[in-house]
Amino acid sequence: MPTPPRLCCSALALLAAFAPLMSSAADRPDPKFRSITLPDEIHWRKGANADTAVIQGDPAKAGIYIQLIRWHPGGGTRPHYHPDDRYIWVLSGTWWVGSGPKYDPTASYPVSAGTFIVDHANEIHWDFAKDEDCLVYIVGMGPTKTVQAETK
Predict the structure, then answer these.
(1) pLDDT tens sequence across 119-129
(2) Rounded CA gap, 70 and 135, in Å?
């Protein structure tokens, strides 16, 4: 049986010289260049109808904000509006949406994962998750607020 080739001293020295570079590839990039938030680092605020997480900015302050809302089955909103446009991407599940001041789930429209939606400023709308969790990604400019607008 032939003997396996042996690494010479110069090859071992070369590997030793590059070892720090190889291990640093697994380190996070310098946050000066790129910020990374891993899924287990997202700070979710748990709720009965939905869990929410602001992942960038602050909806109550001036500037861009990004938030996640995970609607639980049956969780949703009543008719309301916002004074600014909001840009929404459905990440998972089915989100049921409706418009107008009268809440009527039978008049809702299902939007599936991958759908992009714009909630226009000052237009009354409502939404909910029916029988599965639904995760939505929302981008807007703060400060913002939610104004209830239901007609009973």
Answers:
(1) 999 999 999 99
(2) 4
- pLDDT tens sequence across 3-57: 555 545 554 454 455 555 544 456 888 888 898 999 999 999 999 999 999 999 9
- Domains of the chain with bracketed CATH: 39-148 (2.60.120.10)
Using alpha carbons, select from 82, 72, 69, 79 the residue that is nearest to residue 140.
Answer: 82
Which of 54, 62, 48, 69 has its CA nearest to residue 134? 69
pTM over 0.85: no
Nearest by Cα to 130 from 149, 151, 112: 112
Strand 94-99 versus strand 125-129 pairing type: antiparallel
Overall residue count recorded for the chain in this entry:
152
Strand residue runs (E) in the chain: 50-56, 63-71, 80-81, 86-92, 94-99, 109-112, 116-119, 125-129, 134-142, 147-148
Angle of CA points 101, 111, 149, to nearest 5°: 15
